[in-house]
Amino acid sequence: MRFSRVQSCMVFLTAAAYGQQLTVYSEFQRVRPDGEIVQADRVVDRREFISPAVVRGGYLTLRLAIQAPKGMNYTLYIGQNPDGVARCRLLQERHAKVGEEWAPVSAAQVEMPHTARLSPDEAVQTYLLDIQIPANTKPQRFRLEAQLNVGERWVIYPMEIRVRDLAVQPVREPRASGGPPLERSDAVALDRLAEFVCGVRSGTARQLNTITAITARNISQDLLIAQSRAKDETLQAVRATLMQAGGYESAEKFCESPRLSPKGAEWWLKARDYLYQGIPIH
User: Fold this and answer.
1) What does the DSSP assignment read for 14-62?
2) pLDDT digits (tens, 9 = 90+) for 182-209
3) Backbone CA torsion sign across 69, 74, 80, 86
4) Structure confidence at residue 228 (pLDDT)
5) Does some domain include residue 229?
6) Which pLDDT tens digit goes with each residue over 17-31?
7) CB 110 within 8 A of CB 123
């Protein structure tokens, strides 16, 4: 299915009024079955995705939240123009109650297009859209749409994906072992960031579930780019910029006691902007 930008906006506004909606979040914003963000991940201004950047050989992971009328099937499509630029997989998240809060705790790949319906106790169903750019892809811009169909109505979320000239060796996804689901979503960055900034490997491996394993892979990919950027800017300068992105006082203070960023769960997106595009940290 292909739509022009004007058609997409019109269809979105019409369809939303009839009870179906498609919302796109970053990988650092987990969504509960009631449609609210998991409390640990909440930020004041979440990132919107209109024209995200991705590197050649790398991944971009987004979370899709689907709202549809109860008792009706919905179908989710992923469209590209031109076709075949990216390899996409769709993973449906499973939620469970942990303590006092429901949260996504695992994800399993589903075929596309994917048809399902909300259960009686769900306000939304969530998915991870895992987008991989082959290493031999040339730098370019291409259109990618998440397309939701319910009955005769469509909701379209269009994005212009910007493939950068940077290239990275593909990173393997770590093995999942069922890690804590309510730890803040960016916590998986700590061990990898400490190794890059402090030069020491963590003595204990953090447990990962199928969702956090994807985020861990993406952060490892980003730090490969950081190593490449350090060749031009010096390792000390790159480390200092990452510390600034996370709101850390200094690399020395962070290495004394690695802790979650005071900037909230989505802070790594600022670091990624710098690593991929050289955007200064403010």
Assistant:
1) HHHTTT-EEEEEETT--B-TTSPBPGGG--SSPPP-SS-EEEET-EEEE
2) 789 999 999 899 999 998 776 556 788 9
3) positive
4) 95
5) yes
6) 468 999 999 999 999
7) no
Do both 150 and 244 map to the same domain? no
* Co-location of 269 and 146 in the same domain: no
Q: Give the SS3 label for residue 11.
A: helix
Residues 24-66: pLDDT tens digits?
999 999 999 999 999 999 999 999 999 999 999 999 999 999 9
Q: By the 8 A CB rule, do 107 and 91 touch?
A: yes
Who contacts 152 (Cβ-Cβ below 8 Å, separation ≥6)? none
- State the burial class of residue 117 (Cβ atoms within 10 Å of its Cβ: 0-12, 13-18, 19+): middle
Q: Which domain holds residue 259?
A: 185-277
- For the chain, the domain total comes to 2
Q: Which of 273, 254, 250 is nearest to 194 (CA)?
A: 254
In a domain, 19, yes or no: yes
On whether residue 172 sits in a domain, the answer given is no
Q: Which residues contact 231 (CB under 8 A, 6 or more apart)?
A: none
Residue ending a domain, choose from 139, 167, 195: 167
φ, ψ of residue 67 to 5 degrees: the values are -115, 130
